[in-house]
Amino acid sequence: MTEAAIEKENKEIAHQYKELLRISYQTLTDEDKKLIRQAFDVAVDAHKDQRRKSGEAYIFHPIAVAKIVAAEIGLDATSIAAALLHDVVEDTPYTLENIEKDFGNTVARIVDGLTKISHLEHDKDVSLQAENFRKMLLTLNDDVRVIIINIADRLHNMQTMDSMRADKQEKIASETLYIYAPLAHRIGLYNIKTELEDLGLKYTEPDVYHDILKKIRESKEEQDKYIAEFSKVIQDSLDKENIDYSIKGRPKSIYSIRRKMKNQNVSFDEVYDKFAVRIIYRTNPENEKFLAWKIYSIVTDHFRPNPTRLRDWISSPKSTGYEALHITVMGPKGRWVEVQIRSERMNEIAEKGYAAHYKYKQGSSQEDGLEEWVNKLQEALESAEVNAVDFVEQFKLNLYSKEIFVFTPQGDLKSLPKGATPLDFAFSIHTEVGLKTRGARVNGKLVPLSTELNSGDQVEVITSDKAKPNSNWLDYATTARARAKIKSSLKEEKKSIAEEGKAILTRKLRAQKIPFNEKTINELVIFFKLKTSLDLFYRVGVGTIDNQKLKDYAASRSNALVSFFKSKIRKPNPVQDIDKDEITAKYDQLVFGKEEEVLDYKLANCCNPIPGDSVFGFVTVSEGIKVHKKDCPNAIQLQSNFAYRIIQAKWKDSSQEEFKAVIKLTGIDNLGLVNDVTKEISNNMNVNIRNINFDSTDGVFTGRITVVVKNNQILKKLMDHLKKINGIDKVSRE
Q1: Of 90, 403, 493, 500, which one is the catalytic site residue?
Q2: Residue 292: φ, ψ to 5°
Q3: What values do phi and psi take at 659, rounded to 5?
Q4: Strands 615-619, 625-629: parallel, antiparallel or unpaired by DSSP?
Q5: What does the pLDDT average to over 427-447?
Q6: How many whole angstroms separate alpha carbon 244 and alpha carbon 246?
């Protein structure tokens, strides 16, 4: 480079630095400026020999990220310094220890988190990408600013991606739409979310993006004229009321227009609310709410509102902190226009998210606001045993989900994702309440636990010490928190059944004169084609491995030759991990949908799922249902482009399958008989009552009980116990 060019570049770097200080949203003290200056000097020095793909000096990238952090997200000096230093440890000889020495523990911790994220492999398959995302979220434990600076870093990379290879652009853009845009949305950074989505579309579907952009530009003049005409009508009335306000028209983002075109299957011209009008008013805190509704009534005096499209986030703000009134009204020429009404404070919160909260929460420390939010995100991270793809899917659900607001019996307001059920509500109150849920009342009426809640419902959870989760609960719960807690509780229950099974097995082997030792257990595991000893004990506990099967094993054992060959055939290598602590299910059958139907299907060649894998069904045009693994390389693309064709699928395990049976009882009616019968059934840990009907005529009683059991061994045992009850004459199966 020539000296003149270097001189020019240095001038530009100095100018960018001044700009960074000038646009910072937080008020910077002299101490802050000193910290930022020091970080800037270190970054300039560390990156002095580096250039980006586009040819410009590398230092412009950290400065740009710091500017996004300072102005658009509005974070503090510590974050600005960390943003300037975010690539230093990764790309230069400067170490984390140096940063800690020069800038203290907090900056070092944030930079360390950012370095960890950038070290994650990004060119692998979906499950690895999901695992990386999960690791990235776990850095929240260190400091939430890590994630926020990472979003800023991603935004600047997306803004400057033109000089990259097309395949690289598409890869980074897909990941942005899959992970970063929902995350920005959840943090309340709506402007950044919109920009990430638009840029994501620009590189994943360039033709569509440029086509919509061209149409927006072509119709800009006409739109501006329309919005001016619309605003004029309202302005006169607002001026009469002496309200201090400004009106801005704003077109919808390219991505949201594209989404509408896709979802509603319409052309660009048919998307009805392509633009919105935002009224921002200035007021003191006492009149803030009152004025919002006053403006609402002025707007609706002139234009007829669509009653189904009123969104009141002033009375109950979104959990991201967003507050506003949204109404869709019929404007001139019969066009729908969305009107957003916000005070200046609300507008800042909508644009800056949490940073604006701090500014308006004077006196309280910045950390307080973050605390509550971090806790919410960490709930989703609690479940360590969920596999990474499920985790990301769950997390995305909880990120992008629209919210509903429901009331507790005391009248407190709780926010839940759309689609939540009473079970989710129970777990959102407390884990113990969730695990002990027996039923629920919504608006005073008893409802099934799978009922979908609506905004405004009042929900009361009925608990019982006897209640415990069953596997159906996983079909009723939608939030990550509830599902994780249910899964770990079911695991515990299986372990306790396995404990019981171990004791039963010891007795049964003793009766067959077979020693209960490690060798026998290993042989049994292999004989029954299982994987672990825990599986063996569990199956004995639920009665799938019964006396007859154990006799078969004893017979094969006594025939040493058969046994020798069998072990040769069945035992490809020495027993490994036989004591592994898990209950792997034995999968026999693939079922689809919530109803768990058995349908025809083909296994996809791209990922070759095998029984036991987490899978989903994809309805193809010509080949029926194709089954893919959840972490199949094509999964993201299928799930994002053809969500309507995807059906739930899972492998069922015969030992966990449940069956309905009807027991008939007859006997002499006496006091407390019904009580004895129900007590006997409920003491049986593997039996659930579905239906019960007793009838007594002239001292003789008949009863029909529908029970749900895992197999006929358990049913036989139950019937034997019922026969022993005083007064019962006959017990039979219908």
Answers
A1: 90
A2: -60, -45
A3: -130, 150
A4: antiparallel
A5: 89
A6: 7
